[in-house]
Amino acid sequence: MKLNNDNYYSQKANQAYFSVSQVKDFLKCEAYAMAKINGEWVEPPTTPMLIGSYVDSYFEGTLEDFKARTPEIFKKDGSLKSDYIKAENIIQRVEKEVLFMKCMSGKKQVIMTGELFGAKWKIKMDSYIPHEAIVDLKVVQKLRDVSYKNGWKQSFIEKWGYDLQLGIYQEIVRQNTGETLPCIIAAVDKQEYPDLDCILIPDEQLEFQRRELRWKMQRIIDVKNFNEEPKRCGHCDYCRATKKLEKLILPDDLIVFNQ
Ligand SMILES: [Zn+2]
Question: Is the pLDDT of residue 7 over 60?
Fold first, then answer.
């Protein structure tokens, strides 16, 4: 199957190829990931996703097209809803930054495929600058928010697995071109006065994320190929929407469940 911008997100493409977001679905909940692949569970885009798409399409030069096919971003009187006025504000801010615009000056939404960990992968890059860099655009809540994982501080990049995402992009680009390119997140946030930065992810961090994923992939491949039964996480939207009550539980079960 040859991928293009029309079929990249199709069910057929998602069945034939792994993508980073699909693998993240599997790591969250196997049953949920399979339901999405099989078309049994469809998620309408959320407002944060639409804000991201709004800014993406501006850089791609397809903003007018995006507006035309996304009526939900407008109020009844035809003006933009406040979330998308925020997106406009973000665009005006990043346009003033030479470094940001340079990072976003590459070829937009470039699709490549490759093989990794015994599976076929597809990637779509926000800004690919041949011989120079791979850049992914992120519109985040707050750029400098930190969270904790196992007692360690982490930024939004580790929290949302953007280092894994670019680690995969780097390897697939290497397979296609022979070049190992620097990987950058061009990030801007949604504060009234947006914070923004271009973040170079160290190669060691990309390599570490690839290695971490390697040992998880066989299980994911087995589940996707129907050779293993998908496990239900028990608490995601999909699991709650499809759960069957089979027995009485005890108060303590509620506490264990929430851990
Ligand atoms: Zn689940």
Answer: yes
Measured in angstroms, how far is the CA atom of residue 178 from the centroid of ligand 1?
A: 39
Local confidence band at 255 (pLDDT 50, 70, 90 cut-offs): confident
Give the pLDDT confidence of 206-249 residue by residue, as tens digits: 999 999 999 999 999 999 999 999 999 999 999 999 999 999 99
For residue 222, being part of any structural domain is answered with yes
How many angstroms is it from 132 CA to the middle of ligand 1?
40
Q: How far is the CA of 221 from the centre of ligand 1 (A)?
A: 18
User: Distance, CA 17 to ligand 1 centroid (Å)?
Assistant: 22
For residue 31, being part of any structural domain is answered with: yes
Residue 68 covered by a domain:
no
Amino acid (one-letter) located at 11: Q
Query: Shortest CA distance to 117 belongs to which of 207, 25, 214, 23?
Result: 214
Structure tokens at 158: 């580790």
The count of structural domains within the chain is 1
CA 28 / ligand 1 centre spacing (Å): 7
The pair of three-digit structure tokens given for residue 19, joined into one six-digit string: 């993508």
Print the domain residue range for 159: 11-43+97-258
Q: What percent of the chain has pLDDT above 90?
A: 95
Which of 37, 41, 32, 40 has its CA nearest to residue 225?
37
